[in-house]
User: Which sequence fits this backbone?
């Protein structure tokens, strides 16, 4: 189970300070398929990065499967079973797709195993195995390889940050099947940050994050009507 | 082959991936003397009579054969200049594996200056792999100054893959390639410096012939207080294509100067250069850390991939 209590995060620049996360409380049961949605700038990515340890909150706590991970490093959280697919994955000169997948899996993967992961994200595998993850890849290709790396990681909590961005319709359809399949076949907790109704409708539960707070949670039909609501720091409305 | 010590065998593994006596033609030079030599039916290796070094003569039409010519220096304070000439006949396809390893356990400077000259015949293809490596617990410097001159005949091709692995205190590299019509070169130089090491690399690629092509990729990592200077220059004297790319990862308090140059004497020469110097991107480190690597493991992985 993931338990987040009073999570706050503030940034400061020349224009003053801005609260990105405003005391978020959130619990997600093990094995759930959750979609976090909400307006741009509402705090979704920051929340995901705080769970992974990439962002250090000002206050609050994060507990994962009974362990307080608030002060743990990114590496320690990864080794405990948290993974995060970047919204904007980095490129690497000299790191091949098969190597990244093997690093993610924690062991040297066979060609067949790599192919299986790439197929799940809609990539024609033979063409990609030996490719460097560099500027020769399109944004959509990079994004799908990023998702494949999380599939290879196979951790107990998988967070995907806008996996649909830059992906064509056919691959998007393949991707939704993959998310459904992981949910069905593994006991992993899946958290997807998304604006896409098709992904939102796959979820056991939808959480609306706006203005740095959880404003609504429930099923898709309950939450979707509130996506355009004016941002207010209201209390959570359970479905 | 003469009996080699464990240290010497380790150097052979580092610079030439040699775990045993190589197949085909080879010449192993140790502390200025031959520690083993073999000519094959198509590749003849003969000692020079006027100066230190060898001639490697590859018969026309030789295909899918290799020649290993590693150099190891394990005697502290030993310095040498060696001249190796490669005469590659027409229509060949060969692999040449060179390399130099210096183990210095003393306080005197050990130095190897290798002067290689290639004459590559018409329509021949050569892959040249060279690795430089230094180790040893002594305070004596390990210095390597390779000079490589290549003449490509019409339609010839050479791929040069050179790597300075680590442990070389000072190097001044000079590479010059002259290309005739329809010939092509791919030059990949990888270089790692650390501590207070210094590395200079000068290259001159002269595209003399119509439709000659050159692609130069320089990748380096500068750590510690090391200093690197790159000056690759591509000169177009005919309708040709040339591309120079220099990429450096800079770390700690290292200093790097990257000065790629392109010069054209012909309106139809198409020449491009690009250069970048920067630290390891934070999101690259983070990505690998989210996959369970420590920050140090992630850094080492990024560097080894970059210099692969």
Assistant:
């Amino acid at each position: 189970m993931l338990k987040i209590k009073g999570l706050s995060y503030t940034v400061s620049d020349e224009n003053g300070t801005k609260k990105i996360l405003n005391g978020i409380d959130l619990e997600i049961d093990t094995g759930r398929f959750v979609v976090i949605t909400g307006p741009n700038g509402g705090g979704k990515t920051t929340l995901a990065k705080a769970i992974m340890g990439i962002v250090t909150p000002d206050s609050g706590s994060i507990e994962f499967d009974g362990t307080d991970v608030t002060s743990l490093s990114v590496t320690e959280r990864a080794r405990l079973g948290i993974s995060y697919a970047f919204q904007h994955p980095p490129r690497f000169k000299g790191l091949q797709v098969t190597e990244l997948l093997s690093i993610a899996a924690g062991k040297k993967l066979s060609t067949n195993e790599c192919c299986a992961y790439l197929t799940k994200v809609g990539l024609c595998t033979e063409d990609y195995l030996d490719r460097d993850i560099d500027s020769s890849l399109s944004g959509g290709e990079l994004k799908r390889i990023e998702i494949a790396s999380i599939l290879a990681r196979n951790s107990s909590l998988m967070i995907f940050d806008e996996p649909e961005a830059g992906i064509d319709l056919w691959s998007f359809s393949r991707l939704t099947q993959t998310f459904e399949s992981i949910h069905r076949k593994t006991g992993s907790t899946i958290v997807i940050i998304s604006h896409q109704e098709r992904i939102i409708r796959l979820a056991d539960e939808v959480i609306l994050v706006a203005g740095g707070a959880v404003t609504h949670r429930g099923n898709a039909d309950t939450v979707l009507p509130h996506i355009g609501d004016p941002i207010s720091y209201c209390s959570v409305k359970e479905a | 082959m003469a009996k080699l010590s464990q240290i010497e065998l380790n150097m052979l593994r580092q610079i030439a991936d040699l775990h045993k006596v190589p197949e085909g033609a080879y010449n192993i030079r140790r502390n200025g003397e031959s520690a083993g030599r073999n000519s094959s039916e198509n590749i003849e290796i003969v000692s020079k009579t006027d100066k230190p070094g060898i001639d490697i003569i590859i018969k026309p039409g030789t295909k899918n054969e290799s020649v290993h010519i590693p150099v190891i220096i394990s005697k502290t304070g030993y310095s040498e200049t060696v001249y190796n000439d490669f005469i590659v006949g027409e229509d060949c396809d060969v692999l040449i594996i060179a390399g130099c390893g210096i183990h210095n356990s003393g306080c005197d400077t050990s130095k190897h200056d290798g002067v290689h000259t290639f004459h590559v015949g018409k329509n021949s293809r050569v892959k040249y792999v060279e690795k430089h490596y230094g180790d040893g617990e002594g305070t004596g410097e390990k210095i390597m100054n390779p000079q490589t001159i290549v003449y490509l005949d019409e339609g010839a091709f050479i791929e040069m893959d050179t790597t300075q692995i680590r442990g070389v205190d000072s190097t001044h590299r000079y590479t010059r390639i002259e290309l005739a019509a329809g010939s092509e070169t791919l030059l990949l130089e990888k270089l790692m410096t650390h501590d207070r090491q210094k590395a200079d690399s000068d290259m001159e690629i002269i595209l003399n012939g119509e439709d000659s092509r050159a692609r130069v990729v320089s990748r380096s990592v500068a750590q510690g207080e090391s200093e690197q200077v790159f000056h690759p220059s591509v000169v177009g004297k005919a309708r040709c294509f040339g591309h120079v790319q220099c990429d450096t990862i800079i770390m700690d308090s290292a200093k790097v100067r990257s000065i790629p140059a392109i010069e054209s004497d012909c309106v139809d020469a198409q020449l491009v250069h690009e250069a970048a110097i920067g630290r390891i991107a934070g999101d690259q480190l983070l990505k690998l850390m989210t996959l369970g690597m420590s920050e140090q493991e992630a850094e080492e992985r990024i560097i080894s991939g970059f210099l692969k």
Summary: The mean pLDDT of chain A is 91.
